[in-house]
Design goal:
34% helix, four-stranded antiparallel beta sheet, 27% strand, 9 helices, alpha/beta, Rossmann fold
C-alpha cells in the first residue's frame, strides 16, 4: 500500500532521516517507535509532504508521490494526524471536521464519523479549543478520516492523554482499520498502546531503522530498551 524507499530528509544542513525504507501492507498497522529526537515526526512530515524529500521515493498503491504537494497526497489517499492535534481552536467541532472534506467535494460530515466518535456529535457546536485533550485527538482523527484515506498517518496520538482515553483510541483505531479498510502508520513512544494496535514495530534511531519486530513474537524488553536508553 505504502512504499518508502531510501529517503533522506533534513532541515538546512542537518540530515535527520538517513536512507529510511519501509513498506506498509494493505490492512496493516505499523508502529514507528523511538525516543524524542530520533526522527519520527520528521519522517511522517516528509511522507505527507510538509518537508521535502532530498532523495529517495514514496509510493502509494504503486503511484509515485515524492514530488507532489501535500493536498495532492491527501487526494491520492494519504491522511495525517499531526503531533499535538493541531485542531482549529476557534472553529466548532463540526467546522473542524468539515475542513477535511476539501478534497472530496462533499459538504456534510458523513454519518460514520459520529458512529466512531459519538462524543463529537454531542459537541458539534462547541469550539474545538474547549474540548479535552482526548476529545481533540478524536477530532483530529475524524478530520483526517473524512478525506477517505487509504493510509492514515498518526504522529504521537497518545501524547498527554490519560490511560483510559489511550485505550479508547486504540480500540477505535482497530475498528477503523477493519471497517474503513485502512492501513495505519503510527509514530509512538508508549509501548502498551503500540501493542494494542500494531502488527509490526520499527525502531528508529538517529534517522535510521535499527530493529524490526512482529506482534506475534515481539521482544518487549528489547523495544523498551530502545525507548529508555
Amino acid at each position: 500500500m505504502l512504499k518508502v524507499n531510501k529517503i533522506h530528509v533534513g532541515y538546512g544542513q542537518s540530515q535527520v532521516i538517513r536512507g529510511a525504507s519501509l513498506e506498509l501492507r494493505h490492512g496493516e498497522t505499523v508502529a514507528i517507535m523511538g525516543r524524542n529526537g530520533m526522527g519520527k515526526t520528521t519522517l511522517l512530515k516528509a511522507l505527507i509532504g510538509i518537508l521535502p524529500i532530498r532523495s529517495g521515493s514514496v509510493e502509494l498503491g504503486g503511484k509515485d508521490l515524492t514530488r507532489l504537494p501535500s493536498y495532492e497526497r491527501v487526494a491520492r489517499g494519504l491522511a495525517y494526524v499531526p503531533q499535538g492535534r493541531m485542531i482549529f481552536p476557534f472553529l466548532t467541532v463540526e467546522e473542524n471536521i468539515r475542513t477535511g472534506l476539501e478534497c472530496t467535494g462533499e459538504k456534510e460530515v458523513p454519518g460514520y464519523v459520529y458512529e466512531f466518535f459519538p462524543v463529537l456529535k454531542e459537541m458539534g457546536h462547541r469550539r474545538g479549543g474547549n474540548l479535552s485533550g482526548g476529545q481533540q485527538q478524536m477530532l483530529a482523527i475524524a478530520r483526517a478520516l473524512v478525506s477517505n484515506p487509504r493510509v492514515l498517518l498518526l504522529d504521537e496520538p497518545t501524547e498527554g492523554l490519560q490511560p483510559s482515553i489511550i485505550k479508547e483510541i486504540a480500540a477505535t483505531l482497530n475498528r477503523l482499520k477493519v471497517e474503513r479498510d485502512l492501513s495505519v502508520l503510527v509514530s509512538e513512544q508508549v509501548l502498551s498502546f503500540a501493542m494494542e494496535v500494531a502488527d509490526r514495530f520499527l525502531i528508529i534511531e538517529r534517522g535510521e531503522f535499527v530493529h524490526e519486530d512482529v506482534r506475534s513474537g515481539v521482544d518487549r524488553e528489547r523495544i523498551h530498551a530502545y525507548l529508555t536508553v
